[in-house]
Write a structure and sequence with these properties.
The chain is built from 11 helices and 15 strands. The chain is an alpha/beta fold. The chain has a 6-stranded mixed β-sheet, sandwiched between helices. Strands 11-12-9-14-15 form a 5-stranded antiparallel β-sheet, with no helix packed on it. The protein has a 4-stranded antiparallel β-sheet with strand order 1-2-13-10, covered by helices on one side. The two termini are 32 Å apart. 41% of the residues are buried.
């Protein structure tokens, strides 16, 4: 069994006629190996918890019990830190090894958390990231910030765009976050890399789902919509389980185009740097967990050729580098995507590569949900439902419609349609549901 992240790429069609230019869809896929170690990589986790007034009662009680569960699951080699926030930001305890004595101390501190006033989400988030950045050389290989809130950011930096901007250089922005302002200097070239991930947990119907999704995307994490109190432990357990199975860290992927080929469009929100000539793109993909798969969908401009090509045309070359947690060394892989360029070729939907068709469906649904969310936010629920319904029709008539993956997409769209029936259904659960897809 391989202990490396596998790299592969696929083209929508195996051949494109030489006499004309084409836009070809391609998929670059990364697949992490199964990892079931007797010993796993140690983790550094900073929990950032909203203790504003709206968290009083059952919510805060359950969050504290969930933190106690997290403490119980960590080993002596793991470290946990706790940041709480209301109007202010408080470091309840810094990263410390989860020895028996420290577990008792952490549990005691957790039990003492009391609800407060407003919601300085930005201050809590940035402070949690700073704790990860300040680890120095004595750090565990896997690190993450877990942010939970049930409301709207109304202290510190409150716009999602500004919070995401602050995440690019947490140390520089921490003081400004406390003072509710952003620095005038936008140069973040000197920012140290954030070697970790950020997961967000939105509880109930009052939190800002768009903000939490933007934060988790920027932090290479996941946004969890927690629609009821009993889902808090389940969500944290799912997230913690993923962190404890990380196999690849600091995934860096590069795509370089072949002769006369250029990038037309990249689908997705991955952190990337695209060259001006559209010939090269570099992606920063964070960490990968056991058996996780990442798929990058790229539309490629293929040139017209004067005559059929005897040799396959090189469309792109992609390479990946990362720290292999299993072997504790830097690893790398490179593959090339080629297509035939004969005089004539069939490019009918029935001839499409199933992997590419499946991913095209995923992209279609994601775009439709984004459009529908914008329309619903503006109160146009009829148009929002039409956007979702149209994309559902595309998926249901595609080559891979009968596959479980596409059936799940169809089910997701049906769930979203129910959340778009009215302003009441959208504000109660529809919006959060759509952002969590």
């Amino acid at each position: 069994m391989s202990d490396q992240v596998s790299l592969s790429c696929s083209s929508e069609f195996v051949a494109y006629a030489c006499g004309q230019a084409h836009v070809g869809w391609s998929v670059v896929s990364l697949k992490a190996p199964l990892y079931e170690p007797s010993t796993r990589a140690a983790v550094d986790v900073v929990a950032v918890i909203d203790k504003s007034g709206s968290m009083a009662g059952e919510k805060l009680t359950l969050v504290k019990k969930t933190l106690e569960f997290v403490i119980s699951q960590l080993k002596e080699c793991d470290r946990l830190g706790l940041v709480t926030y209301d109007t202010g930001v408080y470091l309840d305890f810094g990263l410390m090894k989860m020895t028996s004595k420290n577990k008792e101390r952490a549990t005691h501190i957790v039990k003492q958390i009391q609800d407060g006033s407003s919601t300085n989400l930005s201050g809590g988030l940035i402070k949690g990231m700073v704790e990860i950045l300040d680890r120095g050389k004595d750090k565990n290989p896997v690190a993450s910030v877990l942010l939970l809130t049930d409301g709207q950011a109304n202290e510190g930096i409150t716009r999602k765009e500004d919070i995401v901007k602050a995440m690019r250089n947490p140390k520089k922005f921490f003081q400004q976050a406390e003072e509710s302002q952003l620095p005038e200097d936008d140069d973040d070239s000197d920012a140290p890399p954030f070697e970790g991930s950020v997961y967000t947990f939105g509880f109930g119907s009052d939190h800002d789902a768009a903000m939490l999704k933007a934060i988790s995307d920027a932090g290479h994490g996941v946004y969890y919509f927690v629609d009821s109190v009993d889902k808090i432990p389940e969500s944290f357990a799912d997230c913690l389980g993923g962190l404890l199975s990380v196999v690849g860290q600091n995934i860096a992927l590069t795509v370089e185009m072949g002769p006369k080929c250029t990038i037309k469009k990249i689908h997705g929100r991955q952190s990337r740097k695209l060259a001006e000539d559209k010939k090269k793109c570099e992606f920063q993909l964070g960490d990968m967990q056991s058996e996780e798969q990442r798929d990058l969908v790229i539309e490629v401009n293929l040139p017209s050729l004067p005559s059929p090509s005897k040799e396959p045309q090189a469309v792109l070359t992609t390479s990946v580098t990362y720290f292999n947690v299993i072997t504790s060394i830097m690893d790398a892989a490179t593959v090339q995507l080629i297509v035939d360029r004969p005089e004539a070729a069939s490019n009918e939907p029935c001839d499409a590569n199933v992997d590419v068709d499946r991913q095209r469906n995923r992209i279609t649904v994601a775009a439709a949900l984004e459009t529908a969310t914008s329309l619903a936010d503006a109160g146009n629920f009829d148009a929002a439902r039409k956007a979702v319904s149209d994309s559902r029709t595309i998926v249901e008539t595609s080559k891979t419609a009968s596959e479980d993956f596409c059936k799940a997409l169809t089910k997701d769209m049906q769930d979203c349609l129910e959340g778009l029936l009215s302003h009441s259904s959208y504000s109660t659960f529809g919006q959060q549901q759509m952002y969590s897809r």
